[in-house]
Amino acid sequence: MAITLHSDGAAREVTGSKHTLEVDGKRYLIDCGAFQGKREESDKKNRALVPDPASIDAVIMTHAHFDHCGMLPLLVKRGFKGNVWSTPATRDLAGLIMMDSARIQARDAEYLSKQAGKKGQNFDWKPLYDEQDAVEAAGQFVTVNYDRPFTVEGGPLVTFRDAGHILGSATVHVTVEGAGGKKTRIGFSGDLGRPDKPIIRDPAPMAPVDYLVLESTYGDRRHESSVDAQDRLAKVVSDTVKRGGKVIIPAFAVERTQELVYHLHLLSDAGLIPKVPIWVDSPMAVNATSIFQVHPECYDRETHEAFLKHHVNPFGFNELKFSTSVDDSKMLNRLQGPAIIISADGMCEAGRIQHHLIHNISDDRNTILIVGYMAANTLGRRIKDGQKQVRIHGEPFTVKARIEEIKAFSAHADYVETWDWLSKTDLSSLKTVFLVHGEDEALAAFKKFLEGKGLKDVRIVEYGQSYTLD
What we know:
The protein has two domains: about 5-220 and about 410-470, Metallo-beta-lactamase, Chain A, CATH 3.60.15.10; about 225-405, Rossmann fold (3-Layer(aba) Sandwich), CATH 3.40.50.10890. The chain is about 30% helix and about 20% strand. It is built from 14 helices and 22 strands. The protein has a seven-stranded mixed beta sheet with strand order 6-5-4-3-2-1-22. The mean pLDDT is about 90.
């Protein structure tokens, strides 16, 4: 039996997750994510997609972040007719994210066309896909709950286990049975979450595997203690309010926004932060929060105890307001006095967060609070790295606001947490670990760390390369 792993993304970078598992000529795509970063380079990679989409037999989704599901509509547009397997919560969130992406692309095309027209330039850029493509992709999902093995298109046996990363996120365990009953087991970590995070459960251990495709986002870094996150958040808010400023938080609409709301709810109830308006300015985050509310099966015990047991909404309290219209969002740019504004996109590459940065980044009373991973070449990364002047919508802005970072809010396990998760698995049959979803320094450090733990064959996956598994 011939089994091959091919990388079409997230190789030496943390975006564009796409890995093709080929088994005796049948092709299974693990995730179909979008590249983010430099606009021209990302657009070129996204348009390349994967070879011959119509020949893909099925897609298996680990979770609904844009860099894991964002190119599904293009895959469908180019001829993919198979099933997209996921957990129920992933299906719901992916539908929301794909539709939002289609709308953003349409708005970008309109805006950029007008800008080019003003300069007398030709403009021929077209969106990768439209809303109808997103609808059709959502219609191809088939959902399976955690820990319920299922057969994919008459081929491998697959099991989802909770990855503890975002609502509905899963690790993927694939069993391929060959001649004479010989079994080859392949694991995909997807994006692995952290223990003791609020709302969702801890990552579940994986069953034994022969090969493991493992994320490496924080392969060279430790996170701050999750216990300290609330204290740090309270201090940033209190200090900024004393200066009469606003706290601007770029946050992914899925998971990070809900986690921040959860923490702010607890801090507000305990009187540990001043009573100031707290705005969630992201239509997708509003909708995603509704999806969180209808999937309590993904919640951990602490959330049940703190909120659900007492019939309290963990995502609603007096100071919290949701912006649902463009007029609401524009009003926030005129808002006087202290406030907290949580807005997407989490890497500051698109969406309403860019308008909030335009109006607030040059005021030294304000704070830009970084709470998640910022990929290389994104606006968020430039702000995080301390660049004194940044360009937003083509215009230069001097960075005078204070830049703070709370690493404990990351949804990715660091290298020690990843090893703690991995060490709960029986590794006696593990032949090879393939490292993906990491930048060069993180990959090199994580490879050395795992080899130091006794793993014999640890490889850094290269973009466009194939690896024989059996």
